[in-house]
Amino acid sequence: MGNFIAQSMDDLPTREQMLAMSGLEFMQGVLDGTVSGPPIGPTLNYWLDVVEEGRVVFRGAPTFETMNPMGTVHGGWYGTLLDSCMACAIMTVVPKGAFYTTLEYKINITRGIPLGMEIVAEGLVQHAGRSTGVANGEIRGAEDGKLYATGSTTCMIMRP
């Protein structure tokens, strides 16, 4: 995610720094490395690839560490990628002085992702109001284009 990944709590942006930017500016900063990316990205092997108003794309690939005891990619990996792309898409429409949090999300896994296969996780805003945002997401194979999972989320938009 960008060129700068947070290594400690001190690397993460402060609340004041976040509120001084629009959500789109914040996400563009993560992409270009002027705002630290979250440490969960390297942990789960995914990174920010595209930021546009109402749209965010992550890329990644499941590693051995993301497997469940049955030898398949854990559903939490799918959920984390979809939560990230959908919620970050909503972040791109959050105005300066506001922030958001995920209220709920749902995923549907349509097929197993082979270990190490690169995927594209895209989140698209469906609705952005004063207090809520709704987005949908998909995980597709980067090379095969096959659909591996879908999701939907509702986020609460708040002003301090």
UniProtKB/TrEMBL annotation:
Keyword Glycoprotein part of the UniProt annotation: no
Keywords associated with the record: Hydrolase
Gene Ontology MF terms: fatty acyl-CoA hydrolase activity
CDD domains: PaaI_thioesterase (cd03443)
Keyword presence, Hydrolase: yes
Domain Thioesterase: 70-146
InterPro entries in UniProt: ACOT13, HotDog_dom_sf, PAAI_dom, Thioestr_dom
Family, as annotated: Belongs to the thioesterase PaaI family.
Protein name: Thioesterase family protein
Species of origin: Candidatus Rhodobacter oscarellae
